[in-house]
Amino acid sequence: MTLDSPTVTGNRGLVIEEPLIFEQGSPDKCGVDLPEPDDRPDRLGGVARSGPIGLPGLSEPEVVRHYTRLSQKNYAIDAGFYPLGSCTMKHNPRLNERMARLPGFADLHPFQPESTVQGALAAMGHLSDWLLGLTGMEAVALSPGAGAHGELCGMQAIRAALDARGADERRVVLVPDSAHGTNPATAALCGFQVRGIPGNDRGRVDVDAFKAALDDRVAAVMLTNPNTCGLFESDILELSTAVHEAGAYFYLDGANFNAIVGRVRIADLGADAMHINLHKTFSTPHGGGGPGAGPTVLSGALAPFAPLPHIVADGAGYRLVEHVEGDMQPFGRMKGFHGQFGVFVRALSYMMSMGVDGLRQASGDAVLNANYVMARLRETLTPSFEGPCMHEALFDDRFLKGTGVSTLDFAKAMIDEGFHPMTMYFPLVVHGAMLMEPTETESKESVDAFCDAVLALADKAKAGDAAFFTGAPRHTPRRRLDETKAARNPVLRWEPPAPAQAAE
Amino acid sequence: MSTLYFTEDHEWIAVDGDTATVGITDYAQKQLGDVVFVEVPEAGKTLAKGDEAAVIESVKAASEVYAPVSGAVIEGNADLADAPATVNESPMDDGWFFKMTLSDTSELDDLMDQEAYDSFVAGLD
């Protein structure tokens, strides 16, 4: 521990105490040296700013160092193991970045004539073909900008299909306990009333409760499979059949597609709609590293209602369908333009470099890694459910009972060990959840290093050293934050110190 | 003197004639941890038994408070917006969420009394 040997600067080796850029610069300094122009006609129509806005002035190296130092305080998949369950933090191959930076892809404008962007449209067409091939579905909307946006797209298509058949009484959406938290929010946003369905003691949907809830007011069911307990919904065919017999639609949340890609055709499960998080399953950056993308695949029943634009292969080339043609009944658009094109290129690059066999192996390795974590930890920690898991291993806090250590304390100690903590307190259906998703990215060595640390910490907690945990983290630039105070009294804006204010 | 009932979702309801006060139990606030945000219903809102009546957010999770019985909201506890910690400090008293009328007092028969709720909670740990 170095805490009792303070340095003059407050820095600790390469761990630099980095002030805010506003605290470093000052409005009366400037990093560039330009002569005052003699003649400054007002071309701003009288809306020129009336006073200084207090931007700090710094030299270029000061700015470069500031942002470089900030970036070094970030934890990222490029820096280490990132077992955040339900998030699929897999490696983003550099090949994807190389492809996305090709000038023919990177330097486009969405208003360019179609004849000049045939390659880009072809890439979107190929991506569509891959997504339809992997899921067996009828149509795909590429434009949704993230997972929850894809949910919105699928549920809007369901809403449009219900409206088209005049089923105004169907306004209830069933959402099992083990679904993603965004599902009920999406259903509510589309004007549906949400009804929860309990899980059973195997961590799956309670089939009897599910069937009992299906009546002629039900518009749709939103199910996540594998679910947020990391378990495959083994009764899914019985569930989807019951949904369709009841005259409702079946929305599948594809956030956990990484566990089954190349192995399960979504159409075979009876799904009517599913969003696909390209940023999870298909290795595009996320978690602060880049925009998401949530293309949504639709069944034959919903395909006529797919939002515009559509990508169509027409004879020699591709074109974007931006207006209604034939008997299509699009419910609208999801975005002004065509979606996260740079993400499409990265995802397609991943698919083409992996191949179908490679994607199949990736999902298998992701499940194998999670089960390896489960096997190594299950005797010491407390798994929430019996049997093997899919792509993520779920534990609860029973192993900490009576130790005085909480899931949060345990996660803070993981930070000192150099790991991004697992997902905590989610899913809500188990107490003090710890959800670990290693993905296929990690080698046996890195998974072992993680498990070794978890096991050692669990032993330490059980041995009664609660103070070690409640005092963690110790090696971070800042110690434990007061999350309650941060939420109750958030300080969201830097204010200049009082003397500077008085001088103005 | 009001009579206290409890739900399996850890709400309490103190009934006095055909009006009642609703809040969450001490067990619920302990499970949630530090409460950082509360949204209570507006007066006049009609609630069916089991409807989402209020929203509560803690450092751990966001969840709903359900109407233990059917009725109409008389008043939401406006003090909670600025002082959500009251739910932690005084869940059974100053931390009440809303007052309501009861449209069907027979719905109270489905709820638990203090003794039944205590043994229900004991069975959860």
TrEMBL record, chain A:
Report domain Glycine dehydrogenase C-terminal positions: 363-461
A Pfam family annotated for this UniProt entry? GcvP2_C
Q: Which InterPro entries match?
A: Aminotrans_V_dom, GDC-P_C, GDC_P, PyrdxlP-dep_Trfase, PyrdxlP-dep_Trfase_major, PyrdxlP-dep_Trfase_small
What EC numbers are recorded for this enzyme?
Answer: 1.4.4.2
According to the UniProt record, what class of enzyme is this?
oxidoreductase
List this protein's GO terms for biological process: glycine decarboxylation via glycine cleavage system
Record keywords: Oxidoreductase, Pyridoxal phosphate
**GO cellular component entries:** cytosol; glycine cleavage complex
The reaction(s) annotated as catalysed by this protein in its Swiss-Prot or TrEMBL entry are:
N(6)-[(R)-lipoyl]-L-lysyl-[glycine-cleavage complex H protein] + glycine + H(+) = N(6)-[(R)-S(8)-aminomethyldihydrolipoyl]-L-lysyl-[glycine-cleavage complex H protein] + CO2
Spell out the residue ranges making up region: Disordered. 475-504
Keyword Oxidoreductase set for record: yes
- Residue ranges of every copy of the Aminotransferase class V domain listed in the record: 162-287
Listed GO molecular functions? glycine binding; glycine dehydrogenase (decarboxylating) activity; pyridoxal phosphate binding
Report the function annotation for this chain.
The glycine cleavage system catalyzes the degradation of glycine. The P protein binds the alpha-amino group of glycine through its pyridoxal phosphate cofactor; CO(2) is released and the remaining methylamine moiety is then transferred to the lipoamide cofactor of the H protein.
**PANTHER family given for it?**
GLYCINE DEHYDROGENASE (DECARBOXYLATING), MITOCHONDRIAL, GLYCINE DEHYDROGENASE, DECARBOXYLATING
Cross-referenced NCBIfam families, in alphabetical order? PRK04366.1 (NF003346)
Which protein is depicted?
A: glycine dehydrogenase (aminomethyl-transferring)
Query: What is the organism field in this record?
Result: Roseospira marina
Traced from the root, the source organism's taxonomic lineage reads: Bacteria, Pseudomonadati, Pseudomonadota, Alphaproteobacteria, Rhodospirillales
UniProtKB/TrEMBL annotation, chain B:
Which key words are in the record? Lipoyl
Spell out where the chain crosses the membrane: none
What GO terms in the biological process aspect are recorded for it? glycine decarboxylation via glycine cleavage system; protein lipoylation
Read off the InterPro entries from this record.
2-oxoA_DH_lipoyl-BS, Biotin_lipoyl, GCV_H, GCV_H/Fam206, GCV_H_sub, Single_hybrid_motif
Give the top-rank taxon of the lineage listed in the UniProt record for this protein. Bacteria
UniProt remark on cofactor binding: Binds 1 lipoyl cofactor covalently.
Pinpoint the Lipoyl-binding domain residues.
19-101
- Cofactors, names only: (R)-lipoate
GO cellular component annotations, sorted alphabetically? cytoplasm; glycine cleavage complex
N6-lipoyllysine (modified residue): where? 60
Q: How does this polypeptide assemble, per the annotation? A: The glycine cleavage system is composed of four proteins: P, T, L and H.
Q: Which NCBIfam families match?
A: gcvH, PRK01202.1
The protein's matches in HAMAP family, at most eight in alphabetical order, are given as: GcvH
Chain's role: The glycine cleavage system catalyzes the degradation of glycine. The H protein shuttles the methylamine group of glycine from the P protein to the T protein.
Q: Which family does it belong to?
A: Belongs to the GcvH family.
Q: What is this protein called?
A: Glycine cleavage system H protein
